[in-house]
Amino acid sequence: MKFVRTEKYDKQFVTENLMGPNALKMLEELISTLDIHSGMKILDLGCGKGLTSIFLAKEFGATVYATDLWIAATDNYTRFKAAGLDNLIIPIHADAIDMPFADEYFDAIISIDAYAYFGTEASFMDTKLAPVVKQGAPIALAFAGFKEEIHDNLPSEILAFWTKEDVEYFHSCKWWRNMLSESKQIQIQNIQEMACFEEAWQDWLDSSNEYAALALNDKQAMESGAQKYMNFISILARKI
Length: 240
Ligand SMILES: C[S@@+](CC[C@H](N)C(=O)[O-])C[C@H]1O[C@@H](n2cnc3c(N)ncnc32)[C@H](O)[C@@H]1O
Prior knowledge:
Structural class: alpha/beta
Low-confidence stretches: none
Bound molecules: S-adenosylmethionine
Radius of gyration: 17 Å
Shape: globular
CATH superfamily: Vaccinia Virus protein VP39
Strand order of the largest sheet: 3-2-1-4-5-7-6
Number of domains: 1
Strand content: 15-25%
Distance between the termini: 31 Å
Number of helices: 11
CATH class: Alpha Beta
């Protein structure tokens, strides 16, 4: 796939603010079939340093609630002001399991490379996430996973660089489908592996910001063959 929108962004700015695989490429692929437009209120959950929030505001004129746990709201606000987008992006420091939003507030929820950190309990969708989005609205999630469930027999390429705990939140498309099928509040539309996997990972492996340095194990694992067991998973659903 060609990342026509992503390519417009300054590579240095993107690289400096990556916290994992290229979030803009993941986002551009994830939302390619969605109708995102000006005036929508979007929850960007686990937005990290806000790259995806900037993209959603700039490309579509959407109002974005840039919500994250590890990155301070003031840090993101500084970036949004510098991008001239502080009129469209609201920086929020919050935990996904205790969000400060009204029920049925959002027109869409988007989450890139974050959902697996907090969404692996089946109850999370119906008790925490789905309530804050309007009926019929899209919920779009993308994150790293495994091609198959290999937790009971982790290959040496993975165990050489990661512990069992490091990879416990990686799951297969089938696992996510089974788990999310328990939700009474969403209808799953599509769960699939993403095309951007290699390209978006490579951008991360090539970057050298503070987070990339911390994630040295990611780099070594991927370069030593872990890549063949991994993928990115996209999930598109709608609130019933
Ligand atoms: C790998 S980073 C990805 C950040 C960003 N989405 C990106 O792709 O550049 C994972 C993000 O998930 C966020 N996160 C993890 N657990 C969270 C939670 N319980 N509530 C909100 N955000 C959370 C972290 O704060 C972090 O910024």
